[in-house]
Amino acid sequence: MDKIVINGGTPLTGTVEISGAKNAALPILMGTILTGDRCVIENVPEILDVDLTLEILEKMGAKVRRDHTTVEVDTKDVRPGISPYELVSRMRGSTYLIGAELGRFQYTKVGMTGGCNFGIRPIDQHIKGFKALGATVSTLGGFVEASAEALVGSEVYFDMVSVGATVNVILASVFATGTTVLENAAREPHIVDLANFLNSCGANIMGAGTDTIKIKGVESLHGSTYAIIPDMIEAGTFMFAAAATGGHVKINNVIPKHLDSISAKLSEMGVYIEELDDAIIVKREGDMKSINVKTRPYPGFPTDMQPQMTALLCFAKGDGRVTEDVWDNRFRYIEELRKTGAQIDIAGKTALVHGGGALVGAPMRSVDLRAGAAMVIMGLAVSGRTEIIDIHTIERGYDNIVKKLRNLGADVRKVSF
Ligand code: EPU
């Protein structure tokens, strides 16, 4: 097993290259199933969730070749209903197999999926969408099984904004006859990226990036070559790490617009932010002010930056509030952060962070992907030694995080034990 060992207190300086977005790569790779053809996907992050996705696709009959960040997938011989439960159950992104299999074969059977544990993760909205398209759906015995004689375009109103349900119903409806209209759809950049990829393969999807998405069914798709957008959460994590350590970092290969809510919060805290065409400069000199933040679906402040924000506020002057409005239990990491001496109280959906205390390094266990990122930020910014275990949770979604931080001057390494 591996752990991350950090000797904190060094301001990060230099340049970091951001990888492709995890939450775009997973639906796009699963979406290649719909093409039944050869796709070349570029800028794919080298993370454990991608390794797992490609392993699942291979087990289903896909031919996969990978050269670092370029992945070639031929899904001609893929068959539905055979993805191994022991693999799909490890990752939430496997839910997208349901929409992709149903869309191409009008049949799907996929094990109930796992992923980060922050409360109940229902899929009722996904199922509502599949049923609206004419599918019969069962969730007995740990599997989701669905089939349809024919999928027919329909109107789907989502009761809450869900990234997963929006992705899944897009995937399922690409070949549905007529037009499918999704109302109250998620607007995340990764939804737009999925739609752009599928359109590059011949699909007819309009309105992605707004809350109304229209999908006109097409008869067939073909393969294409497509490059994934940069990962806004990886970028945001490095921005916060730069601010927490009092550093000066240029974050390359980003779409600054995707980072608006993150940049705005940093500016409010007194951190210098400069937007370039495809880079952002973050510089912190002097104290940071505490602020309040509430997580919201895009374009609001992302829940996937919530733990990192709590960590950052520990280094600001005064009290700040972090309210989690997307997930019902995403504060499990706070107990670990408190080991550094951080003063954080939890009241319902809000964490009250009393910033500005003297903090020290501590051993911590990464309880999920973004929790682990928050612990890395803590470790970099406090004085002394921090050791983080269960780092596979971090490597699920951060491409070469230790190497990238070392390039920025951090005293951090991965150690086997
Ligand atoms: N929800 C329902 N019913 C549904 C679907 C969702 O009640 O049928 C609720 C959820 O319980 C939650 C809220 O709606 O309270 C939002 O869930 P959403 O479906 O948007 O989340 P997801 O698709 O399961 C993706 C990301 C998460 C990210 C969320 C929110 C992937 C693989 N995962 O999850 O990313 O937190 O959207 O932006 O794209 C991460 O990367 O660390 C991560 C957890």
Give short descriptive properties of this protein.
globular; alpha+beta; UDP-n-acetylglucosamine1-carboxyvinyl-transferase, Chain; 417 residues; 2 domains; binds uridine-diphosphate-2(N-acetylglucosaminyl) butyric acid; 14 helices; 23 strands; 4-stranded mixed beta sheet
Q: Would you mind describing this structure in some detail?
A:
The protein has 417 residues and is α+β, with helices and mostly antiparallel strands. The protein has two domains: 2-19 and 230-416, Alpha-beta prism (UDP-n-acetylglucosamine1-carboxyvinyl-transferase, Chain); 22-227, Enolpyruvate transferase domain (UDP-n-acetylglucosamine1-carboxyvinyl-transferase, Chain), CATH 3.65.10. The protein is 30% helix and 26% strand. It has 14 helices and 23 strands. The chain has helices at 22-31, 48-59, 85-88, 96-105, 124-132, 163-173, 189-200, 232-244, 260-268, 306-313, 334-337, 369-381, 392-395, 401-407; strands spanning 2-8, 13-17, 38-42, 63-67, 70-74, 107-111, 136-138, 143-147, 155-157, 179-183, 204-206, 212-216, 225-227, 248-252, 272-275, 279-283, 292-294, 318-323, 343-347, 350-355, 363-365, 384-389, 411-416. The strands form six sheets. The protein has a four-stranded mixed β-sheet, with helices on one face. Helix 6 links the parallel strand 9 and strand 10. Helix 5 (124-132) packs parallel to helix 6 (163-173). The longest helix is centred in the middle third of the chain and has 13 residues, at 232-244. 54% of the residues are buried. The model has no long low-confidence stretch (mean pLDDT 97). Uridine-diphosphate-2(N-acetylglucosaminyl) butyric acid binds next to helix 1, helix 5, helix 6 and helix 12. Uridine-diphosphate-2(N-acetylglucosaminyl) butyric acid (EPU) binds at residues 22-23, 26, 92-93, 116, 121-126, 160, 162-165, 303-304, 326-327, 369-370, 397.
